[in-house]
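Risk register update: the risk of archive-format incompatibility is retired. Evidence:
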Amino acid sequence: MSNEKKVAELLKRAETLEANKQNFLTVFQEVSDYFRPVKSNIIVKKEAGDKSIFNKIFDSYPIVAVETLASVLNGILTNKASRWFNIQTVDEVLAEDNDVSNWLSDATDILWAKLYSPQSGFEQALLEAYKDDVTFGTMATMIEPSKSFDLVFNTLSIKDYLIAENDEGRIDSLILKVQMTARQMLQKWGEDRGNLHETITRTAETRPDQLFDLQLHIYPRTERDSTKIDKQNALYAGCWVDVKNKSIIEETGFDTFPIAVGRSEKSTGELYGTSRAMMALPDARELNVISRQRNEAIELLLRPPLIVNQDFQNRIDLSPGALNRAKQNMGAGGRIALEAVNVVGNVPQTLELIQEKKQSIRETFFLDKLKIFDNPNATATQVLELRAEGFRIMSSLSLGIEEYLNSILTRSFDILFRKSFAVNDLSDGLSSYSLLPNPVFGELPDALKQAPDLKILFINPINQSQQATELNSIDVLLQTVANTAQLSPGVVDVINFDEVVRKKRAILSVDPDLINDKATVEEIRAARQQQIQQQQEMNNNQQQAATLKDLKQAGQA
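Archived output:
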């Protein structure tokens, strides 16, 4: 296919997806006006630093509700204080190998450190994504290596990307719309990379800060050679398109989908999710109107309009304690010189209505059910149970986030893995792995080189709570057996204590270096048994020698 035809098809697809998104953009704009004003440039064009939207907001409660729920999501799902993912082998038997277990534990620690490094921007991107999901029902974060760090996270604005699903309803294509200056494009692609149009190179010399519209099209590659590992044969194709000049700047590829996308509950046939803010939008509209009316009513009560019935010697002074002298003592018909206009209104009822609207928003955002557990005496089990309950309450919201987090973990691990190992796909379906210079991960153990299928699991709060319950159940069982053993010692033989210890180690994610593998345990026990046998033989020999001595002494007697 010629480049001209390919560009035409890509731009045509972008137009189609943009048209499908138009109705959503209208909703996104209105929702952001009330719940996320800092992103209220969906349809309305704004200059950088324009905060005039805040002048139209008379109650900040919807904004606070988004911030609060995003913080709760972060605390429940991705709490930095507890490990919320781990790396495992697909083959569970393989994980029992001590070298494999050590490598998986080290790899998990390395990935955790990379994610939470200040250089990655992960925490900021994650919190922004949570706010987007609560506000727009859809969130997207790009994960790429950079020149300065192994992983860099950037959450995309809802207006800057278009998505498409495959036949299974999963997102497999995305178009990212960006603007770059001519200078930035030269820095990114330079004269030796890509195919920058001559217009851009000329503009970079005269007007380096002029913006150009670009599109990055990401989609499954239909034709690829699986035995090759170059970008042109990667699982996903990437194509940078210069919109104005209708030309392809660069064709690249990705081994995993480079943008993690999450969606809240969505209707059949719709591409974008339905957010909690959309559901609370009617209440937010009314709350803003009523709050404005409340402000006006209170101002009218404090500074009511006046009827002036007399001429005054000077201009009327309405400041506290001011004296205003009328030219006459009494006006016509006996009316006083100044009298307030009686303003009709009921401020207490207005305040009650405001509280009703706020409570409705709280309920929509689950804030009435999600308790922030701040008891300093709470046990770890109680905290886990509370987080699990929060996860269950927000199931319509949290399930989409779980898919999003799994995508982030898979993409991040893939980048670090391929920076550590040269993955050579062989024709028979197998692969070979050779360590690269300056790797992120340590060298693979032999067992993993033979069966390197790995998986990264997001540990949701329900799983964590179940693990805590399982630990407690094991402890109760052991205590019950200990009590029963006082009556029947043989009952202890029912328990496989080796597997109990290994099970508890796995649940607690204890460093595998602290636990000996089965082969080492067998060697230790064999050596101990040998020592026992040798001691018994020594004792028998000593006893026999003593017996012979006694017999000899008795014979002499």
